[in-house]
Amino acid sequence: MHCGAVTACGSRYYTPLKRRISSTTPAALIVRHLRPPCRISVVSPHSSCCAVRLFRTSFVGDISLFDAMKRYFSGSGITENKKMVEHLQHFGVISSVKVAEVMGTIDRGLFVPDGSPPYDDSPMLIGYNATISAPHMHAMCLELLEKKLQPGMRALDIGSGTGYLTACFAMMVGAEGRAIGVEHIPELAATSIENIQKSEAASLLKDGSLAIHVGDGRLGWPEFAPYDAIHVGAAAPAIPQCLIDQLKPGGRLVIPVGNIFQELQVVDKDLKGQIHCHSQTSVRYVPLTSRQHQLGIQ
User: Name one GO cellular component term (predicted).
Assistant: First the structure.
């Protein structure tokens, strides 16, 4: 398929005092802070699926290591899904009643490998050089997408991993909507289906409103496009234009962008099809890449 060009990009400024921690790499503790505006340009115009690259106009921000450590380790030792949600509410990560309800319904413990502390506010290794994001990152993304996850809407989860966030999406859009997960590691896709079958989202998987597919998430999943909400669970060097094209007018895409320095980008497509973006926070995700590269296959 040929992907068109982005026609416009808006931006939003955030003061550097609004710092956050958002990590998806267990080996690193990284302080997060909100960034100033970005601008977009289209790259690789002759490829079958071109991309949108983000450029930072400036870099500002101050860092408090004490605040970072306090926030990062505050979720350790939690042993119940309900307590995990209450913890995130206490620290202001979850403010939405609906997000709290859904995260309380879908038990994260069913989606984390045996031996890992499932309710700690920390990312977890799930094999195949992949991770499941920390609960606070899932909560943040659900809140950013909540208005686009209303009953009857369509959601796409790229890099669906163990299936946790896809299951949350499915609970929010309901049986009259559709939630699609795309995972390029077949073994993870199979495991995610088993996990969902044990969860409260099992009936949605059975009736087909929730589905997991094996494929290259960088190409999206055109079959059920356009989508009201698209989430990407790995960092792309540039926003895949195919995902922009599969976003419904009025829809929202949340995607980490960057290599060493990454930012969680919120991309809105207005009703005229124009694109507006802002950076929500700095993050650290595994890269969005090919299956071969992720597995180290030459």
Answer: cytoplasm
Neighbour tally for 202: CB within 10 Å: 14
Q: What is the DSSP string of 52-102?
A: EEEEES-------HHHHHHHHHTTTT--SHHHHHHHHHHTTS---HHHHHH
Give the active site residue among 23, 122, 133, 282.
133
C-alpha to C-alpha distances, 190 to 160, 195, 215, 230, 291, nearest whole angstrom: 11, 9, 13, 21, 15
Q: Which two tokens stand for residue 41?
A: 């340009």
How many residues does this entry show for the chain?
298
In the predicted structure, residue 201 carries a pLDDT above the cut 50? yes
Q: All domains of the chain, ordered by start, with CATH? A: 137-295 (3.40.50.150)
Query: What's the confidence (pLDDT) of residue 297?
Result: 87
Note the pLDDT tens digit of each residue in 154-200.
999 999 999 999 999 999 999 999 999 999 999 999 999 999 999 99
Average of per-residue pLDDT across 202-212: 98
DSSP β-bridge partners for residue 281: 264
From the list 144, 188, 185, the residue with the least C-alpha distance to 280 is: 144
Residue 112: other Cβ atoms inside 10 A: 20
Of 248, 225, 76, the C-alpha closest to 145 is 248
Is position 160 annotated as part of the catalytic site?
A: no
Q: Which 3 state secondary structure label does DSSP give 118?
A: coil
